[in-house]
Amino acid sequence: MVKVLHHNNINEEVLHSKKIAIIGYGSQGHAHALNLKESGFDVVVGLRGGKSWDKAVEDGVDVCSVAEATAAADIIMVLLPDEHQPKVYEESIKPHLQPGNALVFAHGFNIHFSQIVPPADVDVFLVAPKGPGHLVRRTYTEGAGVPALYAVYQDYSGQARELALAYAKGIGSARAGVLETTFQEETETDLFGEQAVLCGGATSLIKAGFETLVEAGYQPEVAYFECLHELKLIVDLLYEGGLSNMRYSISDTAQWGDFVSGPRVVNEDTKARMKDILKDIQTGVFAKGWILENQANRPQFNAINRNENNHLIEQVGRELRALMPFIKKPVNEKKEVVVN
Ligand code: NDP
Ligand code: MG
Ligand code: MG
């Protein structure tokens, strides 16, 4: 097993003499800025004027432009959406980087796929929490943390590894566990996980199950509860104690069905497709497609997103969740859903 570092194995002293700029105040940005501030570090947030700016001011953190924050800080953590990072880096970060600064990321995409090429005289490392930003924040306030990976790409100061660990401790991740990786491993496994299992795999499995029941004449509302709603209870059990813990809690009938039918749904064929997906990630085919899609103003992304929002499972789900006000309103339902 690799060495997983915890709170007490990490000395964060090296970071106390540094000023940290958090660029962006979205999902990860607000969590890193607030957690680091409450851990006693010197934090400034770099933004353009707008929604995030107002929120950061409301939260009581120091805010200025991306250029000013970069110029003022020693450690520059880039927490903008990955697809916006290269342009903001060129225009507002690169001109203000000083030798010996640290350029930091929460995901390796832009460095690994050469969308950002940093100068040789700065440290480059990543600290990637393995969970969404709102959990990075919530667990911190509860005295816990979200585990994180760290990796050093370029060690100019000789302190890059120490700084990365101190940063991970500052955002609370060392309370859960911090382990070393490389930019390549973090980037490729992160993309694979979200595509094949966590996001793409899960949504496609849910939709296929829902459609199978509805096409067989069952009520969409019943299919929704069975294929989407109940998944949360199962995932909570998996999170708390792995496969065996989940299987311990379900009925023996469900467990027998799991054993005999699960491998009929996800089988060698599925795994062969997963290997194709991994290959597209490793060879840069996926990255190139996504970069070009953004350059073209996302025609395909937007079209698919519109169709997905109109899927029957989404229509039924919106109606059913409205009857369950105790379910926290998700971020995407606070906005108008575009239907056309
Ligand atoms: P978000 O989309 O939540 O953050 C967007 C932030 O960037 C907003 O504050 C936005 O401000 C700001 N922003 C966007 N464009 C610009 C610009 N041109 N100039 C200045 N500010 C801008 O990003 P995430 O937190 O999801 O992702 C940040 C990084 O963290 C990525 O590298 C991602 O891969 C990584 N990561 C994300 C995880 C997650 O849970 N989301 C998990 C682990 C890693 P405004 O309000 O003005 O638009
Ligand atoms: Mg990701
Ligand atoms: Mg059941």
Automatic annotation (TrEMBL):
Reactions the enzyme catalyzes: (2R)-2,3-dihydroxy-3-methylbutanoate + NADP(+) = (2S)-2-acetolactate + NADPH + H(+); (2R,3R)-2,3-dihydroxy-3-methylpentanoate + NADP(+) = (S)-2-ethyl-2-hydroxy-3-oxobutanoate + NADPH + H(+)
SUPFAM superfamilies in UniProt: 6-phosphogluconate dehydrogenase C-terminal domain-like (SSF48179), NAD(P)-binding Rossmann-fold domains (SSF51735)
Positions contributing to substrate binding: 251
Cofactor(s) of this protein: Mg(2+)
Residues forming the catalytic site: 107
GO molecular function, one term: ketol-acid reductoisomerase activity
Protein's pathway: Amino-acid biosynthesis; L-isoleucine biosynthesis; L-isoleucine from 2-oxobutanoate: step 2/4; Amino-acid biosynthesis; L-valine biosynthesis; L-valine from pyruvate: step 2/4
GO biological process: isoleucine biosynthetic process; L-valine biosynthetic process
Binding residue positions for Mg(2+) 1: 190, 194
Alphabetized InterPro entries for the sequence: 6-PGluconate_DH-like_C_sf, KARI, KARI_C, KARI_N, KARI_prok, NAD(P)-bd_dom_sf
Source domain of life: Bacteria
Keywords per UniProt: Amino-acid biosynthesis, Branched-chain amino acid biosynthesis, Isomerase, Magnesium, Metal-binding, NADP, Oxidoreductase
Sites where the protein binds NADP(+): 25-28, 48, 52, 133
Record's cofactor remark: Binds 2 magnesium ions per subunit.
GO cellular component: cytosol
Stretches assigned to the KARI N-terminal Rossmann domain: 2-181
Membrane-spanning residues: none
EC number: 1.1.1.86
Pfam families, alphabetized: KARI_C, KARI_N
Residues that coordinate or bind Mg(2+) 2: 190, 226, 230
Residue ranges of domain KARI C-terminal knotted in the record: 182-327
Family recorded in the similarity comment: Belongs to the ketol-acid reductoisomerase family.
UniProt xrefs under PANTHER family: KETOL-ACID REDUCTOISOMERASE, MITOCHONDRIAL
Its job: Involved in the biosynthesis of branched-chain amino acids (BCAA). Catalyzes an alkyl-migration followed by a ketol-acid reduction of (S)-2-acetolactate (S2AL) to yield (R)-2,3-dihydroxy-isovalerate. In the isomerase reaction, S2AL is rearranged via a Mg-dependent methyl migration to produce 3-hydroxy-3-methyl-2-ketobutyrate (HMKB). In the reductase reaction, this 2-ketoacid undergoes a metal-dependent reduction by NADPH to yield (R)-2,3-dihydroxy-isovalerate.
Xref: HAMAP family: IlvC
Protein name: Ketol-acid reductoisomerase (NADP(+))
Organism field: Neobacillus massiliamazoniensis
